[in-house]
Write a structure and sequence with these properties.
Blueprint: H1 2-43, E1 47-50, H2 64-77, H3 79-83, E2 86-88, E3 93-98, E4 121-126, E5 129-138, H4 139-143, H5 145-169, H6 182-185, E6 190-193, H7 197-205, H8 209-212, E7 216-219, H9 221-228, E8 239-244, E9 249-254, E10 257-261, E11 269-273, H10 275-278, E12 279-293, E13 302-315, E14 321-326
Parallel strand pairs: 2-12, 6-14, 7-10
Antiparallel strand pairs: 1-12, 3-4, 5-13, 7-11, 8-9, 9-10, 11-14, 12-13
Helix pairs in contact: 2-5
Amino acid sequence: FEQLKEEVKKIANQLQELVAEEAQTEETQHEKGTEERMINELLNGQKVELRAMDTTNTSSAVANTLFDDIQRKMKETSGIFKDLKVVTNHGDIEFLVQNEEVAASFLGETASCTPTDLSAFSKVKLSDKRLATSVLISKKLLANGPVSEAYIQEVVAERMAYGIERALLAPTTEENSVTNTLVASAEAKKFTEALTIDALIKLITGVKQSYVNGGKLIVSRAMFQKMAALKDGTGRAYMVNSFDHATNSISYSILGVPVIISEFMKNDAILFVNLAHVGVFKMAESGLTMTALTEKYAENGQLAIIAEMFGDFGITNTDALALFEIGA
C-alpha cells in the first residue's frame, strides 16, 4: 500500500510539471505575439504603452518582460537611478517632510500623548513631468523583431536613465525639471576647503550614522581622478576597487564609501547622498509609451520613435545628503 501511495504521488508530481510547462509555453508564445504586435503597431504609426501587465487589463500593454527589461537596463546604466526609492502613482502626490527632530516619549499608563505640531512639517508635491526622447530607426531594422526590440530597449533605457540623472544633478535651464534636485538641496550643508583625505572624512562623518550606511559619493570624472591620486604616508592610494562578479563590473570606494562617477556632476564638488532615504521618485502608472512618426522620415526609409514617461522627484530628507566644494 505504501509503495502504491508513492507511485500515485510521483505521477501527480509529473502531471503538475507537465501543466506548468504548458502554461510557460503559452505565456512565452503570448509574449512573443504581443511583441510582434508592438512592432506592427509602430510600423503603422500607432502608440504603444510599455507597462507591466495585470490580470484585468492586457489589451494594449506590451509584454511585461519588455517593460521590466527597460527598467532593469535603466538601473544598470545609472547607479543613481538604481538606488532611488520609486513609487507609482496617477496624478499629483504629496509627502510630509519633517523639519525638526522628533522622538517618541516614554509615558505613564494614563498620561496623554501630545501630537507633534504640524508647523514642524512641510510638504513636497510631486506632479507628472514629461521625460521624452526621439529615436530614429530604419523600417528595415524595425521589421527585424528581435534585433529592433533589443536596440530600442538599449537606446531608450540609456537615454531615460541619463535624463533622470541629469535632472537630479544638473538640469538644463530649458527643461521643465523635477521638483527638487540633489546638489541644490545640499547647498545648505555645503563646506569649502582643499581636497584632502581629512576633508573627505569631515564630509562623511558630518552625516548621521544611520545614513552613512548605504551612502555614496557622487563625483565627476575629473574629480574622481583627483580623489584617486590621494595617498597615505606609505604611498598607498586611499581609493580601492573591487570586481563585482554578478554584474561583471568594477566598483570603487574610498574610506569604505562607494564612489559613483556621473558625467552630470559638477567638477569642483563631491556630493554625499543616501539615495534610498533622501527622497522619492514618482513614476506615472502609465509607464512608458512609444509613438512612431512614420511620415516625416518616410522618404529615407526611416521613422522616429518618441518614447516618453511622466515622473518627478522630491527631497523628503535633507539629513541624507551633504556637499563638499573644493576651494583654495
